[in-house]
Amino acid sequence: MPDNRSPDLGRPEVVVVGLGIWGAMTLWRLAARGVRAVGVEQFDIAHARGSSHGGARMFRETCLENEALVPTARRSLELWRELERATGTRLVEDTGGLLIGPRDGRQAGATLASAQAHGVEVEVLVPGELMRRFPGHAGIPDGHVGVWEPSAGVLRAEESVRAAIAQAEHHGATVVSGTRVLGVEPEPGGVRVRTALRDLVADQVVLTPGCWLPGFAPDLGLRSVHLPMTWFAPRGDPALFSRERFPVFMREIDADTVLWGQGDGDPRHVKLGLEPGPEPAPYDPVNGDLALTSAVWDRLGEVLPTAVPGVERFPSKVLNCGITTTADGQFVLGAAPEDPRIVLAGGCNGYGFKHAAGIGDLLADVVLGAADRTPLPFAAPGRLVAAEATAAQF
Ligand SMILES: Cc1cc2nc3c(=O)[nH]c(=O)nc-3n(C[C@H](O)[C@H](O)[C@H](O)COP(=O)(O)OP(=O)(O)OC[C@H]3O[C@@H](n4cnc5c(N)ncnc54)[C@H](O)[C@@H]3O)c2cc1C
User: Fold this and answer.
1) What distance in angstroms lies between residue 185's CA and the mean position of ligand 1's atoms?
2) Are 209 and 218 in contact (CB under 8 A)?
3) Which protein residue has the closest C-alpha to ligand 1 atom 45?
4) Closest atom, ligand 1, to C-alpha of 47
5) Where does 203-267 have alpha helices with state H?
6) pTM, two decimal places
7) Which of 262, 320, 364, 363 is nearest to 58 (CA)?
């Protein structure tokens, strides 16, 4: 009888460590381009202890966090469509999306600027028109606008992870789940990946461990923080909160607060969150205390009666989730400062899902030598080592 716990993995060219959305997409793009790749995941595929679960994530072409990511977002969408065709699974919901706030503010204003710079089609809605078209929203003050981005939408989270893994396997990748990587050690002839099961030696290793990246790269000053997700039940007609009538949005409530959310697809719940949430606690989904308190939704409960009065004030569902932050809010992507055969990819800062397929493709380019070892200079891991060293002097 075959021993499923000990498949013959041979000598892989690449090991991908961590199969959330970034690792799953990377494994798919590597395998699709003929690379002999093994992916190792400590839990099950599409589990709920990292960052890539909870049903849905916003996709949009305009990139407020860094203009230079617009091509990555566009490439991502192309690949997401390819994955849909290959697996026969619906992964993208073309609902359109709304960015609401002052015309010159950090949501609507920045979206207009990004759309203009990159030729993204948008439509500007004044408050009355916006609330008529999307009646789940209320209390939008004069002077605010809604920027309607028809190409925005929702990515199905767990389905996307599963689809990328299925396609990676289809192209010959090996997936080892339920197996924790204990260490990654460069050697003269390759990079040793120590797992609880056995050691693997590969030519290169791509590290996509999400909130666990700080443990692999302690010098980068990364922080994994707890960012729970909350859903609220509609009080009246749930049809007001379908994905089409209450499409994915980010809404500036005041200079410091952004409300975000979307219809859930399940008529019992509407997904809503605030940025910033309560003072973020460290996220350690293996050993940490993840008990949730009302601090997570107290401020939301104050905002909702004015902004989205058609939902209850207390959540109908809550799920733990986490993100990894960097000092400058930009990703970590590229060769590790100590050894170029190890490629680091993380520091998602809460906006990494939509870029995952484009980033997986870029990482495949890096591995194959078709792109620079630090393909996006603003995301080079070395910048954070330098910043940490400077900070340590004071
Ligand atoms: C509440 C919330 C809302 C968000 N909204 C959006 C949004 O609307 N749009 C958007 O684009 N992004 C959004 N994001 C961010 C997005 O979800 C993340 O950027 C993305 O999921 C990061 O994926 P990842 O693969 O890097 O991490 P993960 O999904 O955490 O994957 C890392 C994987 O590595 C595995 N792993 C770790 N260590 C080991 C080890 N030692 N051995 C083996 N396996 C290991 C983990 O188990 C995990 O499966 C949101 C995030 C949160 C929390």
Assistant:
1) 24
2) no
3) 18
4) 49
5) 213-216
6) 0.95
7) 262
Return the structure tokens found at 153. Answer: 């939408």
End-to-end Cα, the chain, rounded Å: 61
Hey, whose CA ends up nearest to atom 38 of ligand 1? 209
Identify the architecture of domain 97-150+228-320 in CATH. Answer: 2-Layer Sandwich (3.30)
Question: Side chain identity at 118, as an amino acid letter?
Answer: H
**Token pair of 74, please?**
């566009």
Give domain limits for the chain.
14-54+157-222+327-392, 97-150+228-320
Which tokens in the block code for residue 55?
Answer: 């049903």
Task: Note whether 14-54+157-222+327-392 and 97-150+228-320 share their fold.
Answer: no
Q: How many helices (H) and strands (E) does the chain have?
A: 9, 22
Query: Mean pLDDT, consecutive 10-residue segments, the chain of 394 residues?
Result: 51 97 98 98 97 97 93 97 98 97 92 94 97 97 96 98 98 97 96 93 98 96 93 94 96 92 95 84 79 84 95 94 96 95 97 98 97 95 79 52
Fold of 14-54+157-222+327-392: FAD/NAD(P)-binding domain (3.50.50)
